[in-house]
Amino acid sequence: MSAKYKRVxxxxxxxALAGDEEHGIDAAVCAQLARQIKASLALGVQISLVVGGGNxxxxxxxxxxxxxxxxxxxYMGMLATVLNGLALQNALENQGVPTRVMTAxxxxxxxxxxxxxxxxxxxEKKRVVIFVAGTGNPYFTTDTAAALKAIEIGADxxxxxxxVDGVYSADPLNDKNAVFIKKLSYMDVINRKLKIMxxxxxxxxMDNQLPIMVFxxxxxxxxxxxVSGQAMGTLIN
Length: 237
Prior knowledge:
By secondary structure, the protein is α/β, with parallel strands linked by helices. The chain has a single domain (7-236), classed as Carbamate kinase. 39% of the residues lie in helices and 19% in strands. The protein is built from nine helices and eleven strands. It has a nine-stranded mixed beta sheet, sandwiched between helices. It has a two-stranded antiparallel ribbon with strand order 7-8. Helix 2 packs across helix 4 and helix 6 (142-152) runs parallel beside helix 8. The protein is globular, with a radius of gyration of 17 Å.
């Protein structure tokens, strides 16, 4: 088995790191993800990640819940992604995988500031790069940050990790009649308002011809299959 892609970006939701819990970070989930990433690196692919912070604090939702200014809530959400990034770095380095956390909001005692050329150099040296703190700006989701970073570093594809096998016509966890969709165009996602990624992220990918693959990362071995180009999940291009 060999890698189809030279460089990929994996978008993880914060909720994925919580496992079966509603909040927090599940060490077992982080370890499982680290093992999958390590196995995929062995194929020769360069891997970067963008991780969300919804397991700790979701800015847009909490700003209404706490009657909080949106910009303040979004910055808090960005800081939550830093916690998740550090947890993933620890899990990866426990597996012997050299990892760098790069942040859009400078905090030099904790992580490196994001510099595009340095990020690419880390990837070329076979280090996993975890991008945290979103874009560094409020009102932008981590989906948009993932699309932006993938384009900036020249990734071949954007992997969107979910808890289901791909995109369905409805939520398969709540609707038994939901139909699996194997392939979509960018405009299908936008026009049908499919809640895969926000419209800004999808539009960025469309404008720069960056394909998106949506698949279930919680199944062991799926990342390795995706990296090798095996047909799985939903492809958006």
